[in-house]
Design a protein that fits this description.
This protein has strands at 2-6, 9-12, 17-24, 33-38, 45-50, 57-59, 67-72, 77-82, 91-98, 110-113, 117-122. It is an all-beta fold. β7 and β8 (77-82) form a beta hairpin.
């Protein structure tokens, strides 16, 4: 079972990036999924989550209105569209699959983790 995150990079403030997380080894169409991030010297924090069918989403306050989480269960892929990026968004972004249909904001709810993709936003 593997989650492969991609799409990170170096951008300037105000620009956009789209992260992808491709799952292999099993389907996660029945599992909630999420994005977390970890900045240097800080703990890993919740960014956004989506329920198994995609009808429910949640975001941390700092990204509301700028980031959009989505999923394509036919492709077994999770996405994070990040617009109007800020230097504070700089971090390694991790995708995760929950133990159940909805994962929420708690790291302990997630069983499978991707390797992370670096996002760096310059001012």
């Amino acid at each position: 079972v593997q989650l492969q995150a991609s799409g990170g990079g170096l951008v300037q403030a105000g620009e956009s990036l789209r992260l992808s997380c491709a799952a292999s080894g099993r389907t996660f169409s029945n599992n909630g999924m999420a994005w977390f991030r970890q900045a240097p010297g800080k703990e890993r924090e919740f960014v956004a989550a989506i329920s198994w069918r995609g009808e429910h989403t949640s975001y941390t306050d700092s990204v509301k209105g700028r980031f959009t989480i989505s999923r394509d269960n036919a492709k077994n892929t999770l996405y994070l569209q990040m617009n109007r990026l800020k230097p504070d968004d700089t971090a390694i972004y991790y995708c995760a699959a929950a133990r159940g249909a909805v994962g929420g904001r708690d790291l302990s709810s997630y069983r499978y983790w991707g390797q992370g993709t670096q996002v760096t936003v310059s001012s």
